[in-house]
User: Fold these one by one.
Assistant:
Number 1:
Amino acid sequence: MNALHPVLRVSGLSKSFVMHAQGDLALQVLNEIELEVAPGECLVLVGPSGAGKSTLLRLLYGNYRPQSGSIRVRHRDAWVELVGAEPRMVLEVRRRTMGFVSQFLRVIPRVAAVDVVAEPMLQLGASLDEARRRAQFLLGVLGIPDRLWSLPPATFSGGEQQRVNIARSLIADYPVLLLDEPTASLDAENRNHVVDLIRERRNAGAAIVGVFHDAAVRDALATRQHDVALLGA
Amino acid sequence: MPGLQDASSQDSGTYNYAYLDEQTKRMIRRAILKAVAVPGYQVPFGGREMPLPYGWGTGGIQVTAAIIGRDDILKVIDQGADDTTNAVSIRRFFAKVAGVATTTRTEVATVIQTRHRVPETPLKEGQILVLQVPIPEPLRMLEPRETETRTLHALSEYGVMQVSLYENIARYGRISKAYNYPVLVNGRYMMSPSPIPKFDNPKLDRNPALQLYGAGREKRIYAVPPHTPVKSLDFDDHPFEIEAWSECCALCGSKQSFLDEMIVDDNGKRLFICSDTDYCQERQQTRQKGES
Amino acid sequence: MTALPILSARSVTKHFGSRVACRGVNFDLWPGEVLGIVGESGSGKTTLLNCLAGRLLPDEGSVTYGTASMGAVDVHSLSEARRRRLARTEWGFVNQDARDGLRMAVSAGGNIGERLMAVGARNYGAIRRTASDWLSRVEIDLDRLDDQPLTYSGGMRQRLQIARNLVSNPRLVFMDEPTGGLDVSVQARILDLLRGLVDRMHLSAVLVTHDLGVARLLTHRLMVMQGGAVVEHGLTDQVLDDPQHAYTQMLVASILPV
């Protein structure tokens, strides 16, 4: 839990989107981003809409590909360069080290909510019982009634789906957490539960990078801010 | 010797000895040698037109014709009997074109040509059993392509036959194949023993006689040399079993031979009688001698 | 990470006369990975799959299989005997049409048991038990064990084909549009089944599909083919969410929203 030793290091990160269908129109979104995050920190990305906050999160997760730059994460006591890494390396980092809460739950047909949540823990080798128990606990904390646990989330409300999403992203203890508007579709009570869970993780040493539109949530969680709109700064 | 006739006194002077020309006999003997060298392997041969149609034993006849000599004594049986039309015709044919002695006695024959049965009387070293085969390929019903069955034999891939036995058990509770029961020869090639009842399969195993198999329509010859292991396929928990009858032969009292069921009157009266006529007669004669 | 890729392709090229079906394909597949090959009709993806699975001989290049204990072997230099044995034991191939991968006139139990019997299984009871176990794993009623696939629905046949392939615990499975032509709900069931099996059995797989949704659900990596060439290649969610190549962008944009 040493604030001096970052677990995530980004340098020279630039991202453009090239739309080939529109005559190869290039849209530069990020330019030479530099940042570091240490355990126990919650770095909040701020900036106007369209500035590239979500894009940056996705780049960190390996979901988007940068034009240039470096993203290094501390994985199993070694630095791993994610830019240009082999897919299996990225997947391995995602399995153990880096979690991502997106705004939308990708719904897989037929899989029960409890199993959607339990899956990341199963991937780490936990037993089915253990993983399901923890999943149920998290779903309970997040206010999902137990009659919904064995149902696939496809028919849940937006807020319920989001809570399932959050539970899934928090079931494993990731050293690095990337949060993209995790409380966007939640009511006040559930928002507070989520904030509590995230703060707990932060205090336990997770390094967090997040995008929060809600000022109250930001204030509750942020230890630092990074303004994404400052291109080339 | 009954049936012995001098070939030159017949108008069979227009035919070569044993009907086939010498080159053909040589070709068939080469095929037989190959077959004996690779037990159970089907050797293609250039089958000739014979004076009887396919399905009547042309393969068996060509094999017999290639190996028979003046000193041989020939027995021919059809479903175990020496006296059915086909057995009689073939025996007469060879008597005429090869001038050989013929017999109904298994014990004294040197060459026995048979359709669909193996003689009950145990064979001895030096005897040759020639079996008539309709479809030489044991996998034919499961795999219609000749190209594929040749590959399966070459690679020893016989899973498909095991599957067919599995299907039998799944459908009937036991392996229901009663004749033409597949065997593995010398631990290597799967062979069709021809449509003999499974009752006769054990007789093929390590038999001191030479077994030659001839298929005329399909033009294949295969062989099992003397003393070669021949194992019928099965499952550990559904082992190979031969037929059994609750009756014994009505004529000779045998409890160990393959019995035919005969309906003897209009009221449906049944008798069970040995299918092997020579075996049955021998036993009857022994019985009579014993009693007298 | 293990030392040997389970499957490697180097410059795999195949022509049919003057038409180039696939050209210069390179990749390494690692144990536990599922590689998707997507493209439209005529992209060469099925030709590539057949070259990888040893069914078609490439005109150029090589396909290497990393065996469990004997190092890497060139798939097309293997003897036919060995390749056929590999295809029956360590590999699986799920065809788009289940009829091509099943014996339609043999019972489900016989179909599943065949690989076992082909390598010497000789206990009827044990074979039947294993077949039943697999039948329930692919969610087919046990009382259909003795029925022929002729009497099965399309989705059931496909699940049976999967069971028939997986009974030998293969390490590598090739799949050609495994859910093509099936009703949507049936597809969902089969995809879920495949996901679970691939996960639990730590299978490696090469999956050809034209359906990007299937690719997203089942694959870790994706290769996009157009006109015989691989135009984009990477982590599945990256290729689908941040497509770089013009063709990939067009494909992704063409998906009809529900």
Number 2:
Amino acid sequence: MTDSLVLAFVIGVAFGFTLERAGLADAPKLARQFYLTDLTVFKVMFSALVTAMLGLFWLGRLGVVDVSAIYVPETFMAPQFLGGLVFGLGFVACGLCPGTSCVSAATGRLDGVAVIGGLFAGVVAMGFAVPAIAPFFTSGARGTFTIPDALHLPYGVVVFAVTLMALGGFMVAERIEARA
Amino acid sequence: MSTANIRTGRALAIIALMLGAAAPFAGSPYRSARGQVDVAGLAGMIAREEDHVTALELATWIHDRKSGLRIIDVREPAEFAAYQIPTAENVPLSQFRRLSVKPEETVVLYSGGGAHAAQAWVFIRAMGHRQVFFLASGLNEWIDEVMNPVASTPITRYFGGVARPEGSTSPSASTTADKVKQLRRRGC
Amino acid sequence: MALRAPQPYANPYVAGTCLGLVLLAAFVLTGRGLGASGAFAATSTSAVRAVAPEAAQTSPYFSRYLEADGRARPWHDWLVIEILGVVAGGLVSAVAAGRWRLTLARGRGVSPGARVTAAMGGGAAMGAGAVLARGCTSGQALTGGAMLSVGSWIFIAAAFGGAYAFARPLRALWSGRRVGGSTR
């Protein structure tokens, strides 16, 4: 195995470990996010997002990291919107996402295994359907397209805005949970 | 959540808030935003003609599969799609912020006539890269010297080009777009 | 609807911050973020190739996961190795916390059959959605979100929006019987 694959494994271990620590291996707990009684999913996801975003911004600014060398997922506006909706439907139906389904299965939960089975079926089916929907599949293509680009705002301003939104969201989440 | 948890959460939130609030005043996180131009040094290189390569030199590099060679077309995507030098990649000037060059790469920039590529040369040198050149007269030179030269050479044939008709010594089309159209018409 | 779980999980903000640091480490050390659905795509490609090689090669979606010679090499795909790590990490954490249990996690009053069906159906929907969106909560929401990609944020909004929109109609999947007159 090459160095990069060893790193992939180590990073994966840290990823899976952290998810289980947060309780995200338990599907009913995850599902509670969407019934507004346990907002762990939101708190974990956005804490992670903000941490990585701030870290990347400052490491880039300090010259430690070359931000332009990091792969940014490409934007395909229409399929990512529809795909998101369908994904959300699946998420609330089964209570896990691809990453947490693997963590869940690893902890002995058989529903995690069932989700993994479903995931394969869905990927294969949609994968073969791609040629039939080719124009839609690549519609709204913008390549590497960031929010600072789209809104013509400085990167740091967007970073601050996202941080504020997340912190505000956390305060609202605490209030919602207190009432649950 | 327990009080200990809330206290930890608050501490993290304060750190995030400080880092986030400072961000708008910090400038750009991209390395390309902080180029340094050594004016005298670069001017000297330009005077000694160490800044550019000829189309034939570039053609030879491509043919010899020079290691680390990276040819960058700085025109807009539509122009790139119409015609590009083989193995070139498209990084329009408008997207230059995202360009990332490894130390072992040799970059050759080109544009239609060479002006934009020459400007891009200064930028990439300002970002600290040493192995950078540009095609002095751009795609015009490539077409006139390699693809559609006065007399056909092995290099011309390697790239699928064809010599100009007998008797004509000067290129017939004047703009890059016209030259490209001529190339297209000839194809088989 | 079931009440909050009593197990002592980690502080979600701390866990989230740690997860963010893992993602940041991935950015710095490998030049790419995290992912999960890509591993499913790569492994699916192997399976498809084993059963119907021409189908895999001619498919615009699956052919991207094949090596140049047309053979599938999922083991060499970064995401697959990463997912194996995820499984290992989850296992270690659960065992260490005494949370490993062979069980079918389901809401109160939900039959095992209904749960398994919902799990498979939900998984299939997520698989389809991930193909369309070129990623899932790990690759798009987390990674793309941290990099401020517009498409990723569209995905975040649509995924959360879709989940909340379908939550009410699907509540029977999580609670086999109504909890008094409560709306939760």
Number 3:
Amino acid sequence: MGPGDYRMLSMATDDREVVARFLRGETEAVGTVDGWISRAAWPYQRRLADRWDDVLQDVRLEVTRLLGQGKFRGESSLRTYLWRVVSHTCLDQIRAQNKWKWADLETLEQGEGPAGVVVHAPTPNREDRDLLQRVLRRVPPDCREMWRMIVAGLSYKEMSLRLNVAEGTLRVRVLRCREKAAALRQEILRPTGKPT
Amino acid sequence: MTCDQAIEILPWYLNGTLDAGEREEVRNHLATCERCRQALADTRQAWTVFAQHIPTQDLVALAWGQPPSGIDPAAAEEHLASCAECAAELEMVRMSRRLEEDDNIALFPAGKPRPLAGAAPRTWRAAALAAGLAAVVAMGGWIHTARQVGDPTTQLAGTQTSAPSQEMQPGVGIDMGGGGVVRAESSAAAIPNDQSRVLILTAGTSGELGAEILDAAEKPVKQMRLQPGPLGAYYVIVPSGMKPGVYTIRLQKDGALLPDKTWTFEVVEPSPAKP
């Protein structure tokens, strides 16, 4: 393959050709795709920190899988398609890092503690998400701030220092926020009530 | 432990940050108290509310200028205004899109590709390095201070080139050994100096840094102060017209050189115009 062919490849004038060459393992096509992946993934590098190499590898495997299964149908350019795959994968990985650990009631009955089992909250559907967002919008901003710290994994001691509030006061405020959110949820769900 | 005491610390029981003694006390209390078990269920429900974020596919759609499909657009807008986490993630996606669209943004250093697992071509690493980093090294002109760069979004929008967009250069071999040194191996590589570039340096640190540019004889030709931009990187503009030769960028913090933060690049005359 000469320089002219290489340049044509890099410009991705024929995405399907690039895919075919990539799946055949041709050096230039593999390099082209990986160059695009590396650029698109770069902004996520800092947040992924020492997991960066592993995530990049996950992206490559996912791209190889998708292209191998013919998932790329040319509805956008190949490069844009790869950008979407990269962004989805990296964002999911960043959010997975922040997943909390909590115990479900069954494991509590069996004597398992929060550190002993990881249970991810179920992903809400569109309807549930809209309800949760409506509740979230109506709770006071300081409640959102405190609870997001909890979700992010801060201890009440850390939060007390960060917010410059006594630990006892903080715990009561958080409890009131929880009660406020529950009341708002009931208010929105009440059949006779007018949703806002 | 009383019910009130247990109920107040349930959020931290769920996020796993109670110390071992508190956790054990709460667990023992829950095992015998129906009221507190209900409070735990209520706390989990509240958690579900406060853990709400914009779905990742909708962040990608928003970065693409499309309406979200998994959340009400107005709710997404309002959420972004109050959620620093989602706003930061959207900024990352937008930056990624900008990199995808504009090859005139160079990255130093790029990620280090690794061999693909399974039936990977043996040339994966070499090819990936060549392809990934050929797009990285493209220099020309003088380097301005980061203070002049300001917001990279603004700067990137203003970056102009007088030549066609960067293409992978045939024959360019890039070595990325020695702690991040990027070097064009072949002087025959046609890296034109008639284009401007924005360099994004990943320094692995924060705060104000000193930067020093050295020529091939290690004579300092420019010193500057750099401020970190969004995403924690440092941004440097390289306009066109730089004298051909080999240059080195070194970063310093508090007067001491940062180890492994040296980037060497070669600038050559632009290729003759093709017929």
Number 4:
Amino acid sequence: MSLLELSDVHTFIEQFHILEGVSVEVPEGGVVALLGRNGAGKTTTLKTILGLTPARSGSVVFDGEEITQRRTFDIAAMGIGYVPEHRAIFADLSVEENLRIAERSSGDLERREDLIFGLFPDLRRLIHLPGTDLSGGQQQMLAVARALVPENRLLLIDEPSEGLAPVLIEAMIEAISRLSATTTVLLVEQNFIVASRLGQSYVIIEEGRSVQAGAMADLVDDAETIQRYLGV
Amino acid sequence: MSDSKQHRQLEAPGTSRSRRIADAIGRNRARTAVLAVLLFLFLAAMAGLESDQWFSTIMQGLSVGALVFLVASGFQLIFGLMDVLNLAHAEIFMLGAYVGWTAYTRFDTFIDVLIPLLLVAAPFALLPLWRALGTRLAAVGRWGRAAAWGLLVSGGVLIVLSITKFPLVIWDAEDFARTPVNMSVQIDLGMLEPLTPDSFGWPMVLAVVVLFCGGAALALGLTTLRSHALPGSVTRRNLTGMVGMIVAAVVLHFVKEPLNDWIFGLSTTWRFFLAMGIAVAVGAALGALIEVVLIRPLYDRPIFTLLITLGVGYVLIEMAREVWGRPEFTMARPAAFNGTGEGCPAEGLGGFFSGCATLVVFGSRLRVYNEGFIVVMGILVLVGVSMLLKRTRIGMTIRAGVEDPEMVEALGINVRRLFTQVFALGSGLAALGGVLAAPSIGLSTEMGALFLLTAIVALAIGGLTSFPGAAAGALLIGLLQQIIIRLGQTGIDLPFLSEPFKPSPTVVPAASIILMVIVLLVLPAGLFGRGSR
């Protein structure tokens, strides 16, 4: 049984029909990459899973439970971590507080300290800085670290490489591939090179529909499909 | 042991404190300059005053500032987190004063009203049950909705029928002599025997059961009209809550006479503290109720929330008029701040606990209640709420929610419940302001409006999104107003004028606005606001 299953999900934002039938299957363990052009509906798919933009029809099943109509905090508390595209670091909170707020029971941060600072050793040095004082790359690390504080079973990571310098992208790939050893990841990534290095399987979304899915290894050699759905 | 180790691990290499302060000043040059100029102006104004006046002027400024702060802080917390401009805030301030007055002078009436209210509220504790039933009823369609309205109406009828059978002291807002205020005054003067309510009009059990059923019908009707995706299930906590409220109501009924005797035997000081607690609790409950019932469905429509809070304000004013029946009345100061005679006014700050109404410090006469107690309470609230925001988890969640409620929700935190809690907190602070203001400025249905207006100006000065800004703005406004009032009495020597210049009292509100305009021209986000720098 897969950890997360979306079947024929339709989502509206106000009157706009954004998702017109998305089906995604995320097996337990590893990384699934959501691919597609800008505005195809990848971010909305993540938000629909979390109930931030609830699905109007179709179903979202996490860990065998129907979560389509549940409220966001309820869904997240089932063990889903979210790293949004705009990172959403709380500027008014220190780095430590940004991590603490993600705790679901007190002491989560201490329990996961080794994992988090092992992946992102820089954060330990920045722990008392306010969230505003971080660079873009540091904010991205903090956003991922925040999703790791509680023991989440699934991470939804949106565009982790966006706006990062190449050396930082490399570090981020390294971090995500290491954490995917213990946690399932659903990744949205515009940069196909990054996505192909991280993902074991992929789902392509085109104009609000999931059009193709399969193993990443097959897609890498399929120049025609890449050109058709992902080429500029 | 392990705790301290972990703490050390999280420690960053220290930056020196003075360096950080210098950095902060460098980053906030405009802010520092404005504060320096304001400080200079205040000192200049002080220089124009006799030495025996400046201290009392400052303390009066602090007193007004403290009351403005109590209104502004709650308003700011609500606006900062939920972007709701709660115009009913002024009326919650007013109701805080009225409820406080009632608990202070007529505790018996307060208990009489509390008992049936507890019984109506008790079925609401079983919310998951009503949600489950309501979802089923709503699924029926049009007839389900009709049934919901039927339930609401019949619930209302049952409650009204049953409440009148409860032994209440009947006030009569139409008959001037029997309005609650006049009755209380006459009772206090010994002109009227305290009215004791008769026994139940029905058998007590019947009255209790009918009232409970009325509450249940209301609860089911309301939950049917608002569809809930997740009914949940009744937990032990729900049950204990309901049983607790019923038991409390019944016990209160049987002990109310000795309880009243005991309360009225206490000194007015203790009764005042009790009244403060009750006013805060009622204010918070009212705020939570307004949020859940009226504001929650309208978060997507800011104009609607603005209008609905405006309307709620007017409704509350009319309700207060109807219930208390007299537009203006006063509240006696509690005994600890009202002493006269031997040894009064006391000398020095130590006289705060002397029981005198006034004391003399640095040659200035201070009223202990106005310039002492209110200021102390203002500082306590400032420190308390700051600690809450800085040190507690809920405070951290509030600060994060101000920036990005969606992300906070995505971390698994129930933001809607947080909204209700903050609404209750803000309303409780407003009610505290009201009950504190009552012995000083008296009660009237309009008492809140003026404070809210001043508070909004103070918030604009301090920065609408900043809690310290609310304190700073309120402090500045309070000091400014009192200094101008005092200068109006003593006059100030200005260059190029042969006579001392005496600002007239009408300058006072204008001066606050001018201060606001100047601050906003230099710092569009206010002194401590974030945003455009």
